[in-house]
Amino acid sequence: MNAKKPPTPTPETCARTILEMSGAAFEPEIAVGLWSKILDHKWLLSEKVGRDMGLRTACIDFLENMEQAPDEYRTYKRKDVLKEMGAQSVSRETWDTIADSQPPKRLVQRRIILPLTETNLAQKHGVVSPKAILFFGPPGTGKTHFAKAIAGVLAWWFIEIEPSMLMAEGVEKVGANLRGIMRQARNLNDAVLFIDEFEEIAGSRDKADRIDKSITNEFLKQIPLLKSQENNLLLVCATNYIRQLDTAMLRPGRFDCIIPVGGLDTKGRTTILKYYLSKLNTGQIDLARLIEMTSGFTPADIQYFIDQVAHFAFEQELKEKEDYLVTTDTFIQMREKVNPSLGNDEIEAFEKDCDNYSRV
Ligand SMILES: Nc1ncnc2c1ncn2[C@@H]1O[C@H](COP(=O)(O)OP(=O)(O)OP(=O)(O)O)[C@@H](O)[C@H]1O
Ligand SMILES: [Mg+2]
After folding, report:
1. Name one GO molecular function term (predicted).
2. What kind of architecture, by CATH, is found in domain 88-263?
3. pLDDT (average), residues 316-331
């Protein structure tokens, strides 16, 4: 239902109309404040019954329930915003698929999760809860997965702000849309807001054209607004190209932490392999061999490798009409289909970025 409000009438008109509708007399300055609340209440009633409720009914009902009506409106509106923004709930399992040794899990636990869950202790020691963090690292290393996992472990909503939401009305409107979305988001509670490919909206202003510049500027205004909020909101941005970001974005005071997400060590690969192996129809598997053959693999590479094996097994069984068990040999056979994403050049470039940009 359209919740757009018409312009507020003058204070005198508000007072007169409320008096006519309900018989209750208010000073014009008070009546004008009540006016928008009555319109909110009209929206809420209409949503509940599924048809447009008259202003008179809404006005009378609001004045009778003045104590609880605004709260009820806020709760209802929040649900509406969650739906509109495509909020997802994420299971805790996502966090458990990340090995403790996989960087940056421990760091995220220490700097993000604990201050948000141990709030009294954090307050006692003057630890400020994080409001905005940035992940950077090569493609497929698990940046999005980390953002989801944080939402899962906190039991908060996960809301991805897609570039298409910002671009919906053309490039010229991106700044205004960003402002609108962030305004809506600030009404939420217990939510992780995620923006992927952050360089697209916050690229360097030196190289950007007029429109890009205005988006970066808008974003720079939004971060302090978000930080001034009391409610549980965490903005997580991710980029593969941290060097392309506007330097103003990276200054202290904007993001609370700038966290690198890099390649996997042996334990990291083990946890991910075990997780995906549990979904296959397996026979004898030499895990140590799989770990060795996936050296240099990102989580995305491992997932792709497993997909290849799964499809192969499926097709084999279709063809042979007998139970096909995936074994170490199946992996050896399929290994050549996957090239590890992280070669020496990528690792070297990432290490340089870690030195230059990490702030944890
Ligand atoms: N610890 C993990 N356990 C299981 N799967 C994982 C893990 N980390 C990442 N993945 C999977 O690997 C794939 C790549 O991860 P993700 O999309 O998070 O990477 P990314 O760094 O965001 O990549 P991009 O830079 O392309 O956006 C995803 O399908 C994700 O579900
Ligand atoms: Mg991603």
Report:
1. ATP binding
2. 3-Layer(aba) Sandwich (3.40)
3. 96
